Each structure stands twice: as structure tokens, then as C-alpha cells.
Amino acid sequence: MTMDTRRFTDWTACQVIPTALFPLGQLVATPGALDAIWRNSAGAWAYLSRHVTGDWGALDRADAAENALSLREGLRLLSAYPLPDGTRLWIITDAHRSATTLLLPDEY
Predict the structure, then answer these.
(1) Is 97 inside any structural domain?
(2) Does a structural domain hold residue 100?
(3) Is there a domain that residue 94 lies in?
(4) Exposed, middle or buried by CB within 10 Å (0-12, 13-18, 19+), for 90?
(5) Fewer Cβ close by (within 10 Å): the C or N end of the chain?
(6) Planar angle of CA 81, 71, 51, nearest 5 degrees
(7) CA-CA-CA-CA torsion for 15, 89, 77, 94, nearest 10 degrees?
(8) What is the number of H-type helices and E-type strands within the chain?
């Protein structure tokens, strides 16, 4: 089954995200990421929707440029988002677009 990446619907927030740039594949999260999301009462979809639309979060220019290349060439994509308590959440989509992982930097 091929995913239509032109449109995502976030049923929990009742909003349509019109510009998904790539498929997320299987979604997985590490224990540390799950704990951080829970501690911050943060919805994972808020960060995943930013990631899939090319809002890479708090990356430096070099990493953002790497994502631009990776998007064109089908390589790994990285986003980094600060959670309300200051914890940094990473989201990585693999090169084959078969999986997207939410994790903390020290779990990499």
C-alpha cells in the first residue's frame, strides 16, 4: 500500500496538514522519548506534523541544509524540538522512509 503524502489529517486536532513531504513509515518511540512526551503533556503528533512538513525545529544551518539534500536524495531526515521542560526531542525518518523514530539525543 502506498501512502498519499499530499494530505495528512490529524483527527485528534481536527486539522488537515496539506503538505506532507515524505511518508513517515512505521512510527516508533524510545522509552525516553515516550517519558519526555508524557512528562511535558506534549502530543507526539504536534512534532511529527512539523517534521513531515519540513519544519525541522531547532537545527543549525548545516543540519537544515543536510535535510534539504536528504529530502531530494532520499537520505535520512532529522528534526530536533525543545519540549516545554527543555528536553530535546529528536525525530529521525530513515532513508527508505520505512520508519520514523522519536528519541532523545542520548538514546541515539
Answers:
(1) yes
(2) yes
(3) yes
(4) buried
(5) N
(6) 25
(7) -100
(8) 3, 6
